[in-house]
Every structure is written in C-alpha cells, then in structure tokens.
Amino acid sequence: MAVLGVGIDVCDLARFEESLERTPRLRARLFTEAEATKPMASLAARFAAKEALAKALGAPQGMEWHDAEVISEASGQPRFELRGTVLEQARKLGVATVHLSLSHDAGIASAMVVLED
Hints:
Its EC number is 2.7.8.7. This protein is of the alpha+beta class.
C-alpha cells in the first residue's frame, strides 16, 4: 500500500466554542445531526478531522462538510464515513483506506489523517 495523502489539523477549544456561540447555525453547517450532539472537545476534534481530511485530499473546492462524518466504533476508535463530494474525491485519488487519529488535551483538539491506496 502506498500513502496517497496526509493531513493534520489542530483546533483551539475555547476559540472554537466561541465561534459556535457567535454563529449558532455553524454547528448545523459543519456537523451531521449525530455529530452535533457530542461534547465540545469531541466537536472540535471532529472539526480538526474534517480539516485534516480535506488537506489529505488536496483541499479541493466544493466538498460538503456533511459528506465526511466521524463515527466512533464500539471500541472507541474513530473512523470516517465518506459520501457524496468527499467520497467522489477519495475515489478519484484511488483511496482505499482512510486512517484517522483524534486527540484533545490542554485546550487543543487535534486530528491526523493518512490516506492509502
């Protein structure tokens, strides 16, 4: 397997929370209904994950936020469920596997994405 893309992103929790409070519709624009119910640290990590995924995919225009949903497995391991515009870009690049790691500590949420063929 070859690495096709890598993306990383960090998100300041306090700043992210202020953004969501200042612009209430932002939560619905960025997150699916299931994601939107998560605690703030998890939301910030999911936002970082979507940003990291966009970077790994080459940051193409026109991708929809809801087309990349972060799902937690029963084990707690996060993974992406891709659809629509994001799935289309991943297929165009030949992506077969998407690895995702999330973390949040000391007021910062972070995510790393690795794409493989």
